[in-house]
Amino acid sequence: MQLRPGVAMAMAALPVAVIAVFIFYPAIGAVLYTLGVKGAVSLAFTAGATHQVFAPKGITLAVYTGLLADPEFQRDMLVTVLVAALTVAICLVIGYSVATFARFRSGPLARWVTGLYLMPLFIPIVIASYALVAFFQPGGWLTVFMYHVLGMKPPPSIAFTTADVVVGEVWASIPFSVLVLTSGMTAINDDWLQAARDMGAGPLTLFTRFVLPLTQLQALIVGTFTAIGVLGSFTVPYVTGPNAPQMLGVAMDAYYGAFGRPQQAEAMAVMLFVVAAIVGVPYVWAMARARASARRS
Amino acid sequence: MAAVPVTAPAVPGTPPRRAQAGPGAWLGTVTIAMFGVFLLGPLANLAVWAFSQTWFFPSALPTVWTLKWWGYVFTQGHLTQAIVSSLTLAPTVTIVSVLICWPAAYAIGRANFPGRRFVTVFILAANAFPQFGIYISLATLLYALNLIGTFPGVVIVQLLGTLVTMTWIPAAAFASVPRTLEEAARDAGAGPIATFLRVTLPLAAPGLITALVLAFLAAFDESQGTLLVGVPNIVTMPVMMYSLVGGYPEPVAAVFSVMLAIPSLILLLLIRRHLVQGAFASGFTLI
Amino acid sequence: MRARTWIASALSLLMVGLAVPAVVPATAATNATTTINVFDDGDTNIQQLFLNLGAQYHKLHPNINVNVIFNQHGLDDNSIYSRLAASAQAGKPAPFDITDGSFFSKGAAAGLWVKLGTKAVPNLKLVNPTLIRDNLYMAAPYRGSEVVLAYNSATVKNPPHTLAGLVNWIKANPGQFDYCNPSDGGSGDAFVQAMLSMGLPKATLTALQNPNKYTASIESAWTKNLQNLAALGKDIYRHGYYPPGNTNVLNLLAQGAIQMATVWSDQSTAALKAGQLPKTVKLLQLKTPFYGGAVPLYVVKNSPHVAAAEAFLNWILAPKQQLFIMNSVSGFPGIEWKYLPAKARAQFASVEAPYFPGFAGQYDSDLHTDWQKVVAGASSNG
To answer: Measuring CA to CA, how many Å separate B50 from each of A130, B72, C320?
Structure first.
């Protein structure tokens, strides 16, 4: 049925209203707190905190400048972004491998493999982190394998390093990557590929000249959403990661609790949000462009 | 609405041509299999812990097996109550999410109205703000609204995590229903409601069901917000169990983990086919 | 496809059916029963302790239910504390009545706890008055433990008995010792405090231990020791990996990944009893002991059941319950040893010791922050 714009707007307003009340409004309070506005959050909460900065009038950027000048924060921010970037890169590689495999091989194996790669989606992240530590830590199956089969004594372990964090994040992000890229592949017409093959194109050429360009939007989707998810993650780095450098999700939690500096923690949350927003820009722009061109064609 | 400018997308369901077998394909298979080990290995390792009595390095398997941890877990009195809470909350949240998001999804997917793109991005942006950062303000607000410690309060908190999936994916699902089919139904004399129920809904079903399941899982696994709002009256499985994962002894945590994963895995088996068919991914090519 | 849709629909309807009774608001419980909510964020053995204590109390007072809210390691303490602070601000009842949570100092500064007196809690008289004063009269220690050195006697033939000796051992046996992140566990915190206290003049130490006068400037006294601790990091397990919690360190010890660690006496004794640590693991206390944790139990001011909570606290301080606690978690009493039944006291004679106090709670935040910056930051893991 055709919707009148007014009705459509009313319908669309529902989730917007929920978000405005329960996320946007509290977020404003939090942001004002980071800008040094007294009373923006509960006094009982701020009374026990330390190292707070309140502006006598208006707002102050002291909390932000303080954090940005802190070398530890700079390093944590860098590591957070790096881990996100690495995770995206690896997920794209694995995602394309599985998607290509599933696309060009029909039959139960392909379906089974794709189903396998969806599994992490259904394991709660806390359990996944714990399972990953159990697997990669000294004494876990990987080191047992290295000890008995590869004869490494003592077997090395990547547990509690940033590498382990990347492994954990990749583990959790693979299903999304596989899903989206698989879906992108279905839009590639067999006839074109056959024509190209008839003209002598090898598999690598097919991939770089056909598959990649035709799925660039999907790749962008994978990149954006995976990155946003990894940027703010807490559980995986907390359970599997090193003490320093920390991902910002872990640092925020520490500043809030053990370090007794909630104002700094809130400021970190705001900055993370800004970074996530920046990451999202290419996606929104590419979508708008694609939609505009689709409408024109 | 596909955003990729292709002339004729492959008809779903057509088997693709077989690639030539050869060493390259073999390598692909092996690589895929290795990744499979990487995915399954940790979970299998964990599952074995749930039955282990004594297990020290460098044994590959426990030296002494036992079932006693499972009995121990069920003697934890509040577990059954937590299970009931989880199983009543998650469906409720899913239903509320349907009521709030699906009309918007329909509008976004089918109509052009001012602010359409803003709405889509706004909903996405809301999920990008670390939830942890708004706890204190959210708790204050919910106290003011008298929602703390109440079932509706917890529903709201769990609802927040489902908004993106329940708006974006159904929007794409509704958008992908060919208007021609609907017009044909109208021409045949069906009213708008009948058309919606008999034509639109079934065709959009794969995406809708996928969204439903994902929303259910998001609500089911939610712990931090539930703790914020629900304690002490409302305790769900994750709230109870997450605090025990990583606890001592390791086997107990492993048992809890296996138990928490079971509902999720059942759902996975149910909707595996729909997910793979691309219903999920089409949601993100929306704006 | 159709069959699946029907199944999905049927399941949904079933769920709705289950959900309806839950949505219908549960009317208030009968006025006769009171529920006391206990919040605990320690390890799982403490959760079990409170569950047992709660069951016993309920048997004695059938009209009182004790509900235990547990959150291990305080992983979600942010949620809980936010909730508590918001409730106090809003003038609404607190989500729990009594707690031994790790946010005592924070809340004390914000005035969230009840000042305890001997009128409401007569058994306070059994507690060492210094400990009560140290808790700003807002909490009573209900159990204790001390941090000790655990070592694998199969591989470590001559364990050190002094802190200096321990440091030398660590340097001579790189990668075989570990302690947990002090922000996440007291066993690591105690080690860090001991290292920071090394060589400090008595006056400074006393000032650091005094909760009634917080002077941020004296924190500079620990800078040099902190650097030493950072330098020691390369000889710590995995060149400076400090696990997020007491339990994780015990697991490392159990796995044989390390041979020595600082651990809680109660937790490790219980683990030895349960066979979760190899029998070769032994415990010893250094000449200058690591600090003892006299864990404070305190009542929330805006709790709806202050009197009932205080009565429960009082009951927990009674010698009979104290003995039960000691046996349950292999710990020490919160009350003074002399008030325990003579037979029990004889049984524990070998471990009876006064508590060695740590730094006052107000210094914790900065200690943890500085440790993270200097010591964790030096680790070459990355």
So the answer is: 13, 11, 36
C164 touches chain A (CB under 8 A): no
Same domain, A59 and A206: no
A119 and A19 both lie in a single domain: no
Could you tell me if B134 lies within 8 Å of chain A, comparing CB atoms? yes
| C278 interfacial to chain B (CB closer than 8 Å) | yes
Is the pTM value of this prediction over 0.90?
no
Residues 87-126 of B with CB under 8 A from A: 100-101, 103-104, 106-108, 110-117, 119, 121-126
pLDDT in tens, chain B (287 residues): 333 333 333 344 444 444 444 555 666 777 777 777 888 888 888 788 778 776 766 677 777 787 877 777 666 656 777 888 888 999 999 999 999 999 999 998 888 888 888 888 888 888 888 877 788 788 888 888 888 889 999 999 999 989 988 998 888 888 878 888 888 888 888 888 888 888 888 888 878 887 888 888 889 888 888 888 887 788 888 777 666 655 545 677 777 777 777 777 777 777 666 655 555 555 555 44
Range of the domain at A88: 70-125+160-296
Q: Do residues A45 and A92 both lie within one domain?
A: no
Say yes or no: A121 and A172 in one domain. Answer: yes
Judge if A109 and A2 occupy the same domain.
no
| Residues A43 and A83 both lie in one domain | no
CATH number at residue A114: 1.10.3720.10
Whether residues A87 and A76 share a domain: the answer is: yes
Contact between C9 and B208 under an 8 Å Cβ cutoff? The reply is: no
Contact B173, B204 (CB under 8 A): yes
User: Is the Cβ of B231 closer than 8 Å to some Cβ of chain C?
Assistant: yes
Closest-CA distance, C301 to chain A, in angstroms, reads: 12
Contact state of B18 with A104 under an 8 Å Cβ cutoff: yes
Cα–Cα–Cα angle for C297, B247, C183, rounded to 5 degrees: 60
Is-contact A23 B134, C-beta < 8 A? yes
The nearest alpha carbon in chain B to C2 belongs to B202
CATH architecture label of B41-52+60-285: Orthogonal Bundle (1.10)
As for how many domains chain A has, the answer is: 2
ipTM of predicted assembly, 2 dp? 0.78
Asked, for residue A213, whether it belongs to a domain, the answer is: yes
DSSP assignment of A48-102 equals T--S----SSS---HHHHHHHH-HHHHHHHHHHHHHHHHHHHHHHHHHHHHHHHH
